[in-house]
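TA notes, week 10

Several of you asked for a full example with nothing omitted. So below is the full record: C-alpha cells for the whole chain, then the designed sequence directly under it. When grading your own attempts, check the secondary structure regions first.
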C-alpha cells in the first residue's frame, strides 16, 4: 500500500499537458510480508489503481528476498525481475537451474506459471518486479544510464531510479528531479508528450513500457 505519493510539481496549463501523473518514493511505501514470510514487497504502482492480484493489468513492485524459498505462481502473468542490491540468487525449476540472478540491473523475464525456487548467494537482495497480464498487455523493463538527454521510449509508463539521480524535462517547461528510490508514474493515454530523460553520471534508471492488447492490434494494421 502506498503511504504517500504526490503530484508532479506542475500546475495550471502545464499540469494538463504534463506526461507525469505523480511521483513517489520507495521509502514511503508500506512493506507487506510474503505469504511464506520469506521476504516482503512494496507496491510502486498497480493498474488499474487498487486492483487485486486477480484483476490487475500490470503491477510494479520492489521486493526484499531474505531467505531461500519459493516464488508464488501467477497463471496468465508474464514477469520480469531485476536485481537492485545484494548478492543475488539462483533460480531453479523442476530440479534444474534456469537462471542465475547475480548481476544488478539486468532484467530477466519468465512466465508466472513457472514454479521457481530461489537459493541466495549470500546477503539478502532487493529486487524490482514487473507483472503483466498476458491477455491484456505486453511489458518490458529497459535499463537507461548516463548519456545525452533522450526522449523516453514510446509506451513508457513508469520510471524508477535504481542508482544515482535523474531529471525529466519537456518542451512545456516541466522539470522533475528524481533521486535513488524515487519513481514517476507516466500517463498511459499519451495525450501529453513524453519527457526527455537526463541521467547523472553513474546513474541507472529502470523504465517500464506497457503495450496494451488493443494497441498491438492497431500497430499490426498499419
Amino acid at each position: 500500500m502506498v503511504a504517500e505519493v504526490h503530484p508532479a510539481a506542475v500546475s495550471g496549463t502545464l499540469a494538463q499537458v504534463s506526461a507525469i501523473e505523480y511521483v513517489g518514493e520507495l521509502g514511503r511505501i508500506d512493506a507487506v510480508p510474503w505469504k511464506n514470510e520469506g521476504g516482503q514487497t512494496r507496491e510502486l504502482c498497480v493498474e488499474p489503481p487498487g486492483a487485486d492480484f486477480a484483476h490487475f493489468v500490470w503491477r510494479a513492485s520492489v521486493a526484499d528476498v531474505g531467505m531461500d524459498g519459493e516464488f508464488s505462481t501467477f497463471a496468465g502473468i508474464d514477469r520480469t525481475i531485476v536485481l537492485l542490491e545484494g548478492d543475488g540468487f539462483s533460480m531453479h525449476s523442476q530440479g534444474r537451474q534456469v537462471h542465475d540472478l547475480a548481476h544488478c540491473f539486468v532484467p530477466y523475464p519468465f512466465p508466472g506459471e513457472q514454479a521457481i525456487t530461489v537459493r541466495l548467494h549470500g546477503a539478502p537482495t532487493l529486487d524490482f518486479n514487473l507483472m503483466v497480464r498476458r491477455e491484456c498487455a505486453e511489458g518490458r523493463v529497459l535499463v537507461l544510464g548516463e548519456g545525452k538527454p533522450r526522449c523516453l521510449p514510446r509506451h513508457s509508463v513508469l520510471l524508477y531510479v535504481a542508482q544515482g539521480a535523474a531529471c525529466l524535462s519537456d518542451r512545456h517547461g516541466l522539470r522533475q528531479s528524481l533521486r535513488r528510490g524515487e519513481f514517476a508514474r507516466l500517463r498511459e493515454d499519451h495525450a501529453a508528450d513524453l519527457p526527455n530523460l537526463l541521467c547523472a553520471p553513474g546513474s541507472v534508471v529502470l523504465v517500464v513500457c506497457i503495450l496494451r492488447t488493443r494497441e498491438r492490434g492497431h500497430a499490426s494494421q498499419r
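Residues 158 and 185 are 5 Å apart (CA to CA). Use that as a sanity check on your answer.
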